Amino acid sequence: MQKSLERQAGVAKALVSLRDGTAEITPKDDGEIDPRELLKATYDSGVSVGEMDATVSGRVTRTAQGLSLTYAPGRSFEISPNQQSAQLEALAGSQTVVTVKGRLFEKGQAKKKQVPKELKLTVLEVKKKE
């Protein structure tokens, strides 16, 4: 599984602990990682995913669906509304860069070993605002 994850675009290093049931992914300095591809690589290795958390930096924008976190040109995560994401409302449309820890996937969001078409970011913690 580790080698499969390390072959993914944008991944510099993957540390996998099957004993702990965790994988920590380090992106390349200029790398952009597609979390859906990480899920697919994990499933293709025969391992189930319970949840996927990520730390993401970007700008908050308002869309027709609600809030979104834009982390690269043309790349963003729709933000699932919750108490923590309410802290981001005032930043929508500003130039402020925010770093959040969030959950992109949780077991039960899709059928067994199937990658969802879209991953929404559930904010767990707002780490910093710049």
Overview of this protein structure:
The strands form two sheets. Strands 3-4-5-7-6 form a five-stranded mixed barrel. Strands 1-2 form a two-stranded antiparallel sheet. It has 130 residues and is mainly beta. It has two domains: 1-47, no CATH class; 51-130, OB fold (Dihydrolipoamide Acetyltransferase, E2P). The protein is globular. The model has no long low-confidence stretch (mean pLDDT 90). It is 12% helix and 45% strand. It has two helices and seven strands, in the order H-E-E-H-E-E-E-E-E. It has helices at residues 2-6, 35-44; strands at 11-17, 22-27, 51-63, 66-72, 75-80, 97-106, 121-129. The longest helix has 10 residues, at 35-44.
Please tag this protein with its features.
130 residues; mainly beta; OB fold (Dihydrolipoamide Acetyltransferase, E2P); 5-stranded mixed beta barrel; two-stranded antiparallel ribbon; 12% helix; globular
